[in-house]
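FAQ

Q: What does a record look like?
A: Structure on top, sequence underneath. For example:
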């Protein structure tokens, strides 16, 4: 495992940790706090990063970045569902 994989993974773990609270808050309060533009573009970008990490052989970064992107996708879905209510 290269040091870049470790560094990227640690940063993504920190980002994911902060997002878990936001996702939980969204489910608890039934509100989508993020804008559609922010959550959709961030989701697409993070899935693109995940693909790039995979092609570079940074497998731990791939997994954690995919998890992070999925959290952003959840925020996007919350915005779509809860904004209609």
């Amino acid at each position: 495992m290269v040091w870049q994989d470790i560094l990227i993974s640690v940063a993504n773990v920190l980002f994911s940790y902060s997002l878990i609270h936001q996702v939980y808050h969204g489910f608890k309060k039934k509100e989508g706090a993020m804008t559609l533009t922010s959550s959709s573009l961030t989701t697409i970008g993070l899935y693109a990063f995940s693909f790039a990490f995979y092609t570079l052989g940074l497998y731990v970064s791939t997994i954690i970045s995919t998890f992070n992107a999925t959290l952003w996708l959840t925020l996007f879905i919350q915005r779509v569902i809860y904004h209609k209510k």
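Q: Is there anything notable about this one?
A: The mean pLDDT is 90.
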